[in-house]
Design a protein that fits this description.
The chain has 253 residues and is of the alpha/beta class. It contains 7 helices and 11 strands. Strands 1, 2, 3, 4, 5, 6, 7, 8 and 11 form a 9-stranded mixed beta sheet that branches. Strands 9-10 form a two-stranded antiparallel ribbon. The longest helix has 29 residues.
């Protein structure tokens, strides 16, 4: 069985080399880049990836574009800030020789501030990323895209290593971007909110991450993640509030 790896990128020069080096066992590597201004494309091409330049329609549509370019029997979707461990690479190769299912979930072990996070809802964080081509597609949404399939799904024992945030500034920038995308999606669905609702969602998010998901066991990094999660929720619902107000007809005094 042959394997295509698909990756979408924008300004991932700091990550893409290690990511691509971890999937050298694949038969084909597809990179769809949405206008990087750093060396992302050059680095990818130097490591044998097939690079396509495209506009940005959102995460789900972009990953489906990459999927449509894949030509092998199986597809592994990986983000630029993820790495396939040698153990996972060997497991994937063994599994594809004698597949138990048409799709597989893989756990992610994420690093934040130099610490591997095993609580906060971050572990094992199974994601469906390996599937037989033609049996699955990404959900057509701007953010929080996921693979959808009607086929049986199995779980691999290995895991990705995930480095989602190079620093706190990067995390804050992503929260700002994702909260805007999520607010726009909720607004399009007609969802309403209020200041009280936004505050309630933020408080509940902190409690869920820090207490219910035992983020306190991840030390100061766990507290930061719970606080940042609460801030992201607060931003998302307040942006929705302003979008709702903006769309209402304005009346004079």
């Amino acid at each position: 069985m042959t394997l295509s790896v698909i990756i979408i990128t924008k300004n991932e020069a700091a990550n893409i080399a290690d990511c691509l080096d971890s999937v050298r066992f694949a038969d084909e590597i597809i990179v769809v880049d949405s206008g990087s201004t750093d060396q992302t494309r050059e680095i990818a091409e130097s490591r044998g990836a097939k690079v396509t330049l495209a506009d940005w329609p959102g995460f789900g549509p972009q990953k489906n574009r990459a999927l449509d370019l894949a030509s092998c029997d199986w597809v592994l979707s990986i983000d630029a800030d993820e790495r396939v461990t040698p153990e996972l690479a060997h497991e994937i190769q063994r599994e594809l020789a004698h597949p138990r299912a048409d799709a597989y979930k893989i756990a992610r072990l994420s690093n934040f501030g130099g610490r591997w996070i095993r609580h906060c809802g971050w572990w094992p964080d199974h994601v469906l990323r390996l599937f037989k081509r033609g049996t699955a597609r990404f959900k057509d949404v701007a953010v929080h895209e996921s693979v959808q399939t009607a086929s049986p799904v199995a779980v691999l024992n290995g895991h990705f290593q995930h480095y989602p945030y190079a620093d706190l500034e990067t995390y804050i920038a992503k929260i700002n971007h994702y909260s805007s995308e999520a607010a726009a999606m909720m607004h399009a669905r007609g969802k309403q909110t209020s200041i009280l609702g936004a505050t309630g969602h933020a408080v509940w998010t902190f409690i869920r991450i820090y207490i219910m998901r035992r983020g306190f066991l991840d030390g100061k990094e766990g507290f930061i993640l719970a606080s940042m999660g609460a801030a992201g929720s607060f931003f998302r619902y307040n942006k929705l509030l302003f979008l709702n107000r903006k769309s209402k007809p304005q009346t004079g005094r």
